[in-house]
Amino acid sequence: MAASRILEHHSIKLDDKGCFFQLDHLFKYKETTISVSTTYNSNNTKKPNYLQIKNADTDEIIWKLELCSYLNRIKTNDLKVFIHSDSNLWIGIHNSHRDVWIFDLSNLNWTKKLSFCPASQIKLVGNKCFYVPGANSTFQVHKWSDLLNPNNPNEPIYTFPRNSTLFDVDWSSSSIKKLAECVYIRQYFMSTQIDLLDGEFKFICSSDILDLFQNYQPLQPVELDEQIEEQVINEYDTNIIKFTTNIIDNILLYWEYREPIVDKNKNILKTGQTNIYCWDFTTNSQVKFTNYDLNVFIHQIIPFRALPDATNPIGKIKYIASEYFGSKSWYKIYESV
């Protein structure tokens, strides 16, 4: 299902700092790790571009399709890929493209369809449902099965305002009835307020993400001396405490941070700081991460659960940070304590 995405694999090339430069589309299918990519080469744009599926464990090509001319510059990073069901790969393209390939890994058959909206507008809610922009500043939630017929979906099953986003959780580990009944969480943008919803999207109660963490201590602004203040390129950002929240793999990651302060030449005048809080709905417990000085800027944070092993039968919790500084960008994995 959608949770079978693999974010750690020997095929991912790391530099000497443990960073990598592409978030590959890797998925677990039975005992095999599947990769989905294109063969686009920026040094030879006249060469045909192929969409390909490989066995990432052996590098064997399973399937290869030459893309038509208007898709000749599609890179691997432009793809939107997930496993829809036990064997169906759903492959779309970000930006304004509506091309969708549905590939059956069990028999290597595929079909191509046109989506009713660009793939970049399709937001997955685990493997339960998905939502897209609707009318009157709303999002429309559709059944998961509609993704197999993307050109003609059924009527939406739920709508909600665009000032929020929707996640799925399994909080059955909680002994509190209203929490155990929660199937969806709706979070408001730029806010820690959340609404708990049941499996029919009925409102249960409102809460605050920070209420999960009894040890929460807010990150404090920094005081700058006059010499630093004169060199800062954007005074508005110097004392802003930011945060981002993501819920994936039944993990909530609240990532509070203060960005580094830099001058016009991108020299760091004062390092930033992280303040990380994480909740595992599977075990109904807090997961600890080490805070650290921040010498980079952050684009995105993606929590995930590593594959189970003998030491951790439900999988160790980690996150990927999409980081950048100046014109360079990369990804890096951080582990819980």
Distance between termini? 28 Å
- The CATH C-level name of the largest domain is Mainly Beta
Uncertain runs with pLDDT below 50, 5 residues or more?
none
- Which CATH architecture of the largest domain would you pick? Beta Barrel
Order of strands across the widest beta sheet? 1-3-4-5-6
Characterize the largest beta sheet: strand count, sense, and whether it forms a barrel: 5 strands, antiparallel
User: How many β-strand runs?
Assistant: 28
Structural class: mainly beta
Counted up, domains total 2
Radius of gyration: 21 Å
Mean pLDDT: 92
Per DSSP, the total helix count is 2
Strand composition percent: 35-45%
Can you describe this structure?
The protein is mainly beta. It folds into 2 domains: 1-121, Beta Barrel (Lipocalin); 219-337, Lipocalin (Beta Barrel), CATH 2.40.128. Helix content is 3%, strand content 45%. The chain has 2 helices and 28 strands. It has a 5-stranded antiparallel β-sheet with strand order 1-3-4-5-6, with no helix packed on it. Strands 19, 20, 23, 24 and 25 form a 5-stranded antiparallel β-sheet that branches. A hairpin with a 5-residue loop joins strand 17 and strand 18. The mean pLDDT is 92.
Attribute tags:
about 325 residues, mainly beta, Lipocalin, 2 domains, 5-stranded antiparallel sheet, 2 helices, globular
Task: Describe the structure concisely.
The chain is an all-beta fold and 337 residues long. The protein has two helices and 28 strands.
Helices and strands in order, then pairings?
Elements: E1 5-6, E2 19-20, E3 25-29, E4 32-38, E5 50-55, E6 60-66, E7 79-83, E8 88-93, E9 99-104, E10 109-114, E11 123-125, E12 129-133, E13 138-143, E14 158-161, E15 164-168, H1 177-180, E16 184-188, E17 193-197, E18 203-208, H2 226-231, E19 242-248, E20 251-258, E21 261-262, E22 268-270, E23 272-280, E24 285-287, E25 293-294, E26 297-305, E27 317-325, E28 328-335
Antiparallel strand pairs: 1-3, 2-28, 3-4, 4-5, 5-6, 7-8, 8-9, 9-10, 11-12, 12-13, 13-14, 15-16, 16-17, 17-18, 19-20, 20-23, 21-22, 23-24, 23-25, 26-27, 27-28
